[in-house]
Amino acid sequence: MKHKIIATAVVPSLLILTGIISYLTIRNNWNFEIASYIIFLFTGIYILILERIIPLKQQWKSKKLELLTDLKHFIFSAAIFDALGKMMALSLVLYLQEHFFKLSYFWNVFPFFITYIIANLIGEFLPYLYHRLSHKGNPNSYISLLLWKIHSIHHLPTRLNWFKTNWIHPINMLLNTFLKMMPLLILGFNKDIIFLVGVTHVVIAHLSHANIRTTHSFLDYVIVTPQIHHFHHSIKVEEAKNFSNILPFWDLLFGTYYNRKGTVDKVGVMKYLKADYPKSIAYVKQLTYPLTTYKKCCP
């Protein structure tokens, strides 16, 4: 009974607590960078504790053999290339401002919460399209296969938990960040909104990969919960949908939303003879894997 209550409260509690920290940061004009690190650290501790208390699957717990690869992905693939993506987006927008147009900050006419929702939806759109295209894996298209082989690194793990959020190819991370931030900067959303969008992304991205038992609720249609994102990692093609990273709005709109009773059975990539996916502990081979792209490699 106690674990059932925790499973029901785990998602809304994290959203409320991190929302309070974010609200206090903006209201008191605290340093955004420091607040972001605090929220990230709090989210990580929160998830790691709950993965011990109410794990969805015992076999999904982190293994020491993969810990070094987990750290490499976190430090090199995620942190560095996320920062590069932000820097590229900001540089492009500054260039456009200087040579072509000045931004018009008309978003201030909307209520703050409405602006925040709109910014999240806009920020999700291009990454959603990129993510969806990355899953095509058309064997007759070099570009399609290249996109899949870049993204397939994120799907290599056969277990999901907090650490696996950061299993992502550097190119994938750079494009995700660039495509999310560039439209928000071009459209002139203020620094408070962009801070909140970034915080929301960090919290939900790590939560959605967590090995935590949750319950079906209306939140499955509002944010990308562990329940629906686990299905995205399913080895069954008919379940591997839900291409949105933070909000399922675009999946619901374009018919790529998937949910059902119960939980995902197995996660990972489907093994095909010509795919030759790198091993889970081979970090360098995971980085170079897209360079071996050729036609008629995989589905």
Automatic annotation (TrEMBL):
<dbReference type="InterPro" id="IPR006694">
    <property type="entry name" value="Fatty_acid_hydroxylase"/>
</dbReference>
<keyword id="KW-1133">Transmembrane helix</keyword>
<dbReference type="GO" id="GO:0016020">
    <property type="term" value="C:membrane"/>
</dbReference>
<feature type="transmembrane region" description="Helical">
    <location>
        <begin position="5"/>
        <end position="26"/>
    </location>
</feature>
<feature type="transmembrane region" description="Helical">
    <location>
        <begin position="109"/>
        <end position="130"/>
    </location>
</feature>
<keyword id="KW-0472">Membrane</keyword>
<dbReference type="GO" id="GO:0008610">
    <property type="term" value="P:lipid biosynthetic process"/>
</dbReference>
<protein>
    <submittedName>
        <fullName>Sterol desaturase/sphingolipid hydroxylase (Fatty acid hydroxylase superfamily)</fullName>
    </submittedName>
</protein>
<dbReference type="GO" id="GO:0016491">
    <property type="term" value="F:oxidoreductase activity"/>
</dbReference>
<dbReference type="InterPro" id="IPR050307">
    <property type="entry name" value="Sterol_Desaturase_Related"/>
</dbReference>
<feature type="transmembrane region" description="Helical">
    <location>
        <begin position="32"/>
        <end position="54"/>
    </location>
</feature>
<keyword id="KW-0812">Transmembrane</keyword>
<dbReference type="GO" id="GO:0005506">
    <property type="term" value="F:iron ion binding"/>
</dbReference>
<feature type="domain" description="Fatty acid hydroxylase">
    <location>
        <begin position="118"/>
        <end position="256"/>
    </location>
</feature>
<feature type="transmembrane region" description="Helical">
    <location>
        <begin position="74"/>
        <end position="97"/>
    </location>
</feature>
<dbReference type="Pfam" id="PF04116">
    <property type="entry name" value="FA_hydroxylase"/>
</dbReference>
